[in-house]
């Protein structure tokens, strides 16, 4: 393999993710003709077509799709090798790719990443903001080094607990439930319920399923704060993690559930893949940071 094949394989991944040669060229800072030439050279080296072009863009062929996972593994291994060599030489030019769901990105990331950058100024932190299942899948595919999730659903992930985040009922100030100290689960089917964003709804849906609760759904949103706004207008009741509600100035009542519930926030990485020096430094920093909170 010629040494510049690594760059060509990286270009192929970008084309696959962007769905077009022109978009990949913009993201990589190459000309469109340079990207096309590298893809053509790579196809010549492989001996078969890797992408097919159409008016709607560029898609991988069946053969190209078969190469994506081993290419990603190869590039990740090459990056870990380069980082280790640099670390041995006393230099840090590392990068860590981290997945975060929205409430962690909003309420933890500014302080956490700022503190990490102060201690490790030569490690670049690249953040992907997504849902739990997206973060898990991207960790296992090698697109992310690690990520914040609430417990784990995939056995191939190593998970370290960082914090327990209470789930709270959010009730209008003028409501039959507003004077209660807690909201019993059995009362939820008796009130109009507002389904919050997809991330929070995952935790709530799990509780409802385990306890046989069928809420009387009035509205459903993809955004937690939109659900809070509807509660504020007296349109129903919702349930959200305490971290989501942190710093909120909404004119609502919050109360614990009865029995109380919480989600477990942790950081995860793939069991079968060794962490790069940068990712190892980041995960260890996160664990120590969470212990001090």
Provide a descriptive summary of the structure in words:
By secondary structure, the chain is an alpha/beta fold. The protein is 45% helix and 25% strand. The protein has 11 helices and 12 strands. Strands 3, 4, 5, 6, 7, 10, 11 and 12 form an 8-stranded mixed β-sheet that branches. Strands 1-2 form a two-stranded antiparallel ribbon. Strand 8, helix 8 and strand 9 form a beta-alpha-beta unit. Helix 1 packs across helix 2, helix 1 crosses helix 4 and helix 2 packs across helix 3. The mean pLDDT is 88.
The overall average pLDDT, rounded, is 88
Tell me the fraction of residues in β-strands, as a range: 15-25%
Report Rg.
23 Å
Distance between the termini: 49 Å
Helix/sheet category: alpha/beta
Oligomer state equals: single chain
- H/E series: HHHEEHEHHEHEEEEHEHEHEEH
How would you sum up the global shape?
elongated
Unreliable runs: none
Distinctive features:
293 residues; alpha/beta; 8-stranded mixed sheet; two-stranded antiparallel ribbon
Summarize the topology.
Blueprint: H1 5-18, H2 21-28, H3 32-46, E1 51-54, E2 57-60, H4 62-88, E3 95-100, H5 102-107, H6 109-119, E4 124-129, H7 132-141, E5 146-150, E6 157-172, E7 183-184, E8 192-195, H8 198-210, E9 216-220, H9 224-232, E10 238-241, H10 242-245, E11 252-258, E12 262-270, H11 277-292
Parallel strand pairs: 3-4, 3-5, 7-11, 8-9
Antiparallel strand pairs: 1-2, 5-12, 6-10, 6-11, 6-12
Helix pairs in contact: 1-2, 1-3, 1-4, 2-3
